[in-house]
Amino acid sequence: MSRVLVMIPSGEVYDHNNVRWYRHRDIQRNLGHYHNIGDAFVFDSSLKLLKFDRLETLTIREFNPAEIDRLRAEFDYVVLRGSNYIHGEMDWEQAEEVLKRLGLPVLAFGIGAQAPVNGKLTLSDSSRNVLRLIAGSTTSIGVRGAYTAEVLADIGITNTRIIGCPTAFRRNDPSMRISLPQIDRVRKVGVTIRREVSPAYARDIRQYLTFHRDLIKSVAARFDTLLIAQGELEEKKLVLGIPEQKDEAIASLRDNAWVREWYLDEEIERLYRSRLFYSDVVSDYDACVSACDLVLGYRLHGNLMALANGVPSIYFTYDSRTREFAETFKIPSFDVFSETVFRLSDYWDRSLFDAFNRAYADTYYAMSDFLSENGVEHLMQRSVLPDKRRFSVSV
Description:
This protein is an alpha/beta fold. It has helices at residues 27-31, 37-49, 65-74, 95-102, 125-137, 146-154, 205-222, 233-240, 243-255, 257-262, 266-275, 282-290, 300-308, 320-329, 344-347, 350-373; strands at 2-7, 12-14, 18-20, 52-58, 77-81, 106-111, 141-143, 160-162, 188-192, 224-228, 276-277, 294-297, 313-317, 333-335. A 6-stranded parallel sheet has the order 4-1-5-6-7-8, with helices on both faces. The protein has a 6-stranded parallel sheet with strand order 11-10-9-12-13-14, with helices on both faces.
């Protein structure tokens, strides 16, 4: 089996292919550190697709020729964990020098581009060089959607394959389908929350936060609701902190002018104190979303985790990343900046989720083919009917 290096991991690996945050039991140490546990979802899911017997981290913070030479001799290829790397502020540290000397194939595992609200995406010379190195090292480069493929084509990278995100396929099940229950049978609903947002990517912070607030309140008024957080410090403290830290978290939220004016009212505070969920262990999110009848909200990977577990999910899109995910997988979605009113009943439509089911199957086989064409040993099951296989077109 393969010996794999991981570039830019997100968490520690245990029991071969499971991921949790570093020193996850040291709660007080981690409460003051921001990390998006959704990145660990992607890392965990990537490992669940691969067949390997050895795993180690490729450090790009420093250029150590002797260490790089050792890694070249002992490992077969590098996995670049899928994430939002293609944007104007990306810092690749010493990756260009490291990868040039290493000379191993670098598997880009569903990487994505982030468009700014205004103007065209501009990449640094370092980003262009690293991306071209990666693309030149393998048969194809895996991207999450059409927009990312277009951005890479603009800098001369055309061997892209649209594969979505490993999180969708973490069960290695090509036959996974979303089936809708009767809406009056929905009892427990998870709302994936993202209170922090940058005006560089969300064009109207007021509308973003007020819609977010009203969504939480309307769902909580109708269903047994769980608010699923993924890393903001105040939310983490409200879940894992001691009483004094919980009070500090609320005080910090009130000190934020945007949050105070457009998001945090008495009802949201009550729900934050009683209905928040957060964990530093990826498998806890599997259990969390699997207990829900529906998951909706703002989080890319939180929603995708639900779909991977066969739970209906609806995306609320607000930037190029969320739109690209929804478009790739044909996930039912609502633009938070639209002038229309969101009504759950409008989205409780079997045909919408049938479109997702078809796109899921297409993208599953694209992912499997991507791994195979790059010579990567993997665990993705194939269809029992080869003539029914679906393929996504490479851009």
